[in-house]
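As a next step, we paired sequence with structure tokens, yielding the entry below.
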Amino acid sequence: MKALHLGILAAACALGAFQCQRVLDSRSSRTPKEEILYLSDPEIIRRASLGHASLLADFYWLRTIQYYGSKDRSRPDQQYDLLDPLLKLAVSLDSQMILVYRFGAIFLSEPPPIGAGNVPAALALLDEGIRKNPEAWVLPYDKGFVYYWQNKDYRKAAEWFFQASRYAGAPNELALLAESAMNRQGDLETAQQLWQQRYEEATNEKVKLNAKKNLQNLRAHRDKWTLEWVVNYFVRREKHLPASWEELIQKGWLKEVPMNPWGGTYILDPQNGSVGLDEATAARLSPLPDDYRKNLWQRLDQR
């Protein structure tokens, strides 16, 4: 009975705080740029809740939705000054509210007038959620999403998608999403590092085999493009195409006949300098965006 009375009292306090906020809002003669958040100290509110802070967190989450929904999105200069403080207040009262972190990050990161256009605040909110909810794979996934869509930072997006994919219960498709993000980035070295990490940490044999196939594919492309760069550089210096790998070895351009990840040798075409694989091995190769080759050649040119 005592617990029931305390619960009723807490609900009354929560409702009182919520109504007080509404009255203060209605009486304040403020412009959108002068909005003020009353009752903003979570510690004071937590004490007033008599141990039922999660109830107040629900109220402040509803207030956040009300605040966000009341904005005029036809105005290009629309401001969301209270959005971040309201979200911080809600999660400080109840750190397990996963939906607040998720939708809050969307509200914060969307560019004006749809959202606040505050990507750093969105990432900080998700970081707080990840710290407080270490088993929720959706939060690192959402962080990758923000990096992907708002920052166009595909490398960071891939890293967070991969991290999310390692959580218990995370869908296998997250690894493919990470690969897709890396394809947008065109960063061959980072892609290899991420797939290597995936391979070493995988406990499922199918996941491990998939990571191994991707590593072999990345290495084969890297070898092929590096060898073609060597051939091109040889032509610039020697003024003719090499007849074979042996010529490149004899003249100090290579140490040995290059081997592919499946145990065979790469094939050098003396007519045009292209590097390939035998027909059976080539069937294992999956295409990669040409940005990978361009970025690799750019780094090699800078050596």
Observations:
- Strands lie at 267-268, 275-276.
- The first strand starts at residue 267 and ends at 268.
